[in-house]
Amino acid sequence: MNATPTALAPTLGTLEERARQRTGAFGEDALIVCDSLVRIYQSEGVEVQALQGLDLLVEQGELVAIVGASGSGKSTLLSVLSGLDVPTAGRVRVGPWDLMSMSAKQRVAYRRSMVGFVWQQTARNIVPYLTAAENVEFPLALAGARRRVRRARAAELLDVLGVGYCADRRPSQMSGGEQQRVAIAVALANSPQVLFADEPTGELDTATSHDVLEGLRTVNRELGTTVVVVTHDSSVSEHVQRTVAIRDGRTSSEVVRRTHTADDGTEHVVAEEFAVLDRAGRVQLPREYREALDLVGKVRLALESSHVSVWPDRLPPDRPQEPPTRTGRHRAVPAHEEQQ
Ligand SMILES: Nc1ncnc2c1ncn2[C@@H]1O[C@H](COP(=O)(O)OP(=O)(O)OP(=O)(O)O)[C@@H](O)[C@H]1O
Ligand SMILES: [Mg+2]
């Protein structure tokens, strides 16, 4: 056999040529682009790096969930995307809006026209002394919409979210889940292109939380709104196509769900987990992988024809052969030489 796997590896020249052909700026076609975002908080002389070079692309029309441990940077990311906070470094764009260089006036316009928000605390989203319909009409009135238009829009949105029957109720006459679905309708009143929701199910039980996540899915499907939702709800990946996990201020892995049609026509939902390779070439290895092979400190990398392998620094006694090293990655070893 002449062709060893090493011999099939692309040459450095081929890889460089491919890289040259990839022109375009990072994420130029995406609706939301976070490129190496850094957010450092200073409090009482202590520096907290809430975002540590985070990359994220969201396409127009996507419904994306963000999950991650407490303190991993989810709310910081959403504050940046919603125009409430400015990152320390990096690049962030939503549609035509460059969030790093917006003036205060542009920031207000961005928040009014481009994006809508839903927060965890229901009280922060809706006014307690107004009915559900009045709550949805309120931002429309501020924007100068006529009464008839406001009424029709409020009725439509409450219907889409399955809470049309709450139109004349005040928040105190609704359940937590109903209030959050009304809050989503309020956030959508001015037809934003993107809806951000930070833990909208945080105060709800499982069944009610399911209704709210389904509400977001309906909004995404029927109104075409791009939705980014932060949640602790572990069942969220059942409701969305893409779940992005954040660890230590960076996107670390993604679960993508797609519908697969078998030969007999039956449809199955397939969920696949990917590690995220960031712009600087970093990948976070899951803890169980690191522990299983005792990977600490240094590892050996080898470029194969179709993948990259990661090897422990110290070779196990039952594997005396050296793995390919980084420097030797493009060396094609003739078969006869190998057999010696
Ligand atoms: N205003 C602030 N000043 C100082 N540190 C902050 C500030 N806001 C957040 N942090 C810190 O930044 C880190 C990320 O916080 P963030 O609120 O984004 O986490 P989170 O993923 O939303 O967590 P949770 O799931 O608990 O809501 C944390 O270590 C937090 O203590
Ligand atoms: Mg948070």
**Strand adjacency order, main sheet:** 6-7-8-3-9-10-11
Relevant CATH superfamily of the largest domain:
P-loop containing nucleotide triphosphate hydrolases
Q: What can be said about the biggest beta sheet?
A: 7 strands, mixed
User: What does the oligomeric state look like here?
Assistant: single chain
Structural class of the helices, strands and pairings?
alpha/beta
Strand content: 25-35%
Number of helices: 11
Report on the structure:
With about 350 residues, the chain is α/β, with parallel strands linked by helices. The protein folds into two domains: about 60-85 and about 100-275, P-loop containing nucleotide triphosphate hydrolases (Rossmann fold, 3-Layer(aba) Sandwich), CATH 3.40.50; about 285-340, no CATH class. It contains eleven helices and 13 strands. It has helices spanning about 5-10, 10-20, 75-80, 105-115, 120-125, 130-140, 145-160, 175-190, 205-225, 285-290, 335-340; strands at about 30-45, 45-60, 65, 90-95, 95-100, 115-120, 195-200, 225-230, 240-245, 250-260, 265-275, 300-305, 310. The strands form three sheets. Strands 6-7-8-3-9-10-11 form a seven-stranded mixed sheet, sandwiched between helices. The longest helix has 18 residues, at about 205-225. Mean pLDDT is about 85; it is low at about 1-5 and about 325-340. The structure holds adenosine-5'-triphosphate and magnesium ion.
What can be said about this structure in brief?
The chain has 340 residues and is α/β, with parallel strands linked by helices. The chain has helices spanning 5-8, 12-21, 74-81, 104-113, 122-125, 132-142, 147-160, 176-188, 206-223, 287-292, 335-339; strands at 32-43, 46-58, 63-67, 89-94, 97-98, 115-118, 194-198, 226-230, 242-247, 250-261, 267-275, 299-303, 308-312. It folds into two domains: 58-84 and 102-275, P-loop containing nucleotide triphosphate hydrolases (Rossmann fold); 287-339, no CATH class.
